[in-house]
Amino acid sequence: MSEARAPGTFGAAWLVARKDLAIEFRTRTAFFSALVFAVLALCIFYFAWDESLIAPAQRAPGVLWVVLAFSALLGLQRSFGIEEHDRGIDALLVSPISREAIYLGKAIGNLLFLCAIQLVTIPALALFYNLPVGRPLLVVAGIVLLAMVGIVAIGTLFSAMAVNTRLAELLLPMLSLPFFVPILMNAAQATTRVLAERPLAESWPWLKILIAFDIVFVVACTLAFPFTLEE
Amino acid sequence: MRRAFGRRRAVDGVDLSLNAGDCLALFGPNGAGKTTLLRLVAGLLKPTSGSVQVCGHALRDDAAARAHVGLISHQSMLYRALTARENVEFAARLYGIPDPRAAAARALERMRILDRADAPVRSLSRGLQQRVSIARAIVHEPSVVLLDEPYTGLDAAGGAALTDMLHLLRSSGSSLILVTHNVDEGLAIASQAAVMLDGRIVRHDDCTTLDARVYVAEYRELVLSGADHEESLDVGATA
Q1: What is each CA distance from B50 to A2, A182, B34, in whole angstroms?
Q2: Whose CA, among A142, B80, B82, B197, lies 20 to 30 Å from A91?
Q3: Which residues contact B170 (CB under 8 A, 6 or more apart)?
Q4: Does domain B1-68+146-239 have CATH number 3.30.1330.200?
């Protein structure tokens, strides 16, 4: 015990994230449910509109962000659920790692989880909606990553708050979605311009606001998280 | 120390101190406040007033102080999808133990479950999960070990391994707080015994001067006179 030295905030966060990903890799329940939802939603949206009225490329940004927001919720739901089953969270709280490290670890795990889903969703979107591949799609992937940071920051915090309640599955979307709006609004505006192959400078003002929201949400949620654990 | 939930005082003015190597057995009926007290000592609950100090450091505010504490609870605090080894190794890494793999193997060996180390926790019986849970709690060789009904679900071999472990921890200077309904079980290990009723410590004895048979009879009388707690009494074979 004398030689032991507890990991720092980021080291501990990585341990928590790695553990969460290992659990998800073994069970794959949340991954497959989020993936199946995303692909099915893309199909439904594709066939729901008359192609002669609105071109698929014009529909794609809206479809992308609806699918992304709801598939993210499916993944976020399980984030603290795995801690509650046998009170694994108590072992984390008793350990010498900080509450902030637990939050950041959960958020990193969720971010990587959602990135894995987007690795399938974005190419599927390009395929269904005949989007320009290459640079525009890479920029869209970058915008998705930026939006994911904010979505995960909020979703992880509310997942911790909702998990102990009787209506956790209802409460998480009710709490999270209003906070997703400013992120989705800016991300969708930027995506529309990128997919229309307009200059990146036109999307830049929206991206700046998106980055600002990311910073605010990550900092505020990290600071607020320890208070959600108090009984 | 006090802790209230709304208007109800779950822990009401408890003042305890333990020296290195002491073991306090805490008895009491359901709802007496034993588990709340243990969660306060573990830093999982914030006291309404008062504080917990480990080696002179306030537990809740000091990560280094938390590194001295090990908790064994009603729940296993394990991840079912991971193996026993992965669970214990994860705990060892959280405490920054230099060789987490070796430390995990050592803790599992002590709890006599190394042969099932690579089995997923979900495939283990309740008793074996409890052994893994104990291995997880002691992997960092804590100075203070908090045990909430640790014998629940253990078979004879698991119980013996736990008793050996508790004696070993005491002899190496760890302080233990053992919450149990079973007075015999508690007195067999403890150096001090206390009875909790309605959030208060109503009796505190030194075990070296206790006659177990007399204590059990007095405990039963004390609890029954305090409230209608008969259904929760389990005073062991001596009663």
Answers
A1: 29, 43, 17
A2: B197
A3: B21, B22, B23, B176, B189, B191
A4: no
DSSP line for B157-223: HHHHHHHHHHHHHHHTT-EEEEE-SBHHHHHHH-SEEEEEETTEEEEEEEGGG--HHHHHHHHHHHH
Residue recorded with tokens 């190394």? B114
Residue A166, number of CB atoms within 10 A of its CB = 7
In this prediction the pTM is 0.89
Out of A109-113, B82-86, B128-132, pick the least confident. B128-132
Most confident of A55-59, A173-177, B152-156: A173-177
Give the distance from residue B213's alpha carbon to the nearest chain A alpha carbon, in angstroms: 36
- Integer-rounded Cα Rg, in Å, for chain A is 19
Both structure tokens of B126: 């309740």
Q: Record the tokens describing residue B7, joined without a space.
A: 């208007």
Q: How many domains does chain A have?
A: 1
The parent domain of residue A70 ranges over: 9-228
CB contact under 8 A, B44 and A96: no
* Cα-to-chain-centroid distance, residue A79: 11
Tokens, residue A44: 């439904």
Report whether B131 contacts B111 (CB < 8 A).
yes
Residues of B with CB below 8 A from A86's CB?
A: 75-80
Could you tell me which of A7, A81, A70, A14 has the C-alpha nearest to residue A39?
A70
| Cα–Cα distance for residue pair A92/A98, rounded to 1 Å | 9
Q: What 8-state DSSP symbol labels residue B3?
A: E
- Residue in chain A closest to B75 (alpha carbons) equals A86
Q: Which residue has the tokens 């729940």?
A: B75
Tell me the angle at which helices A56-84 and A29-48 cross, rounded to the nearest 10 degrees. 160
Q: Which of B46, B80, B136 has its CB closest to that of A85?
A: B80
Does residue A2 belong to any structural domain of this protein?
Answer: no
- Give yes or no for A230 touching B (CB within 8 A): yes
A3 lies in a domain? no
A contacts of B90 (beta carbons < 8 Å): 15, 19
How many angstroms from the chain centroid is the CA of residue A125?
18
Q: How many Cα atoms occupy the beta-carbon half-sphere of A178 within 13 Å?
A: 4
Tell me the shortest Cα–Cα distance from A17 to chain B, in angstroms.
11
Q: What pLDDT digit, counting tens, does each position of B101-124 carry?
A: 999 999 999 888 999 999 999 999
Question: In chain B, what are the domain boundaries?
Answer: 1-68+146-239, 75-141
Nearest CB partner across the interface for A90, out of B64, B68, B77: B77
Minimum CA–CA partner of B88 in chain A: A91
Neighbours of B96 (CB within 10 A): 21
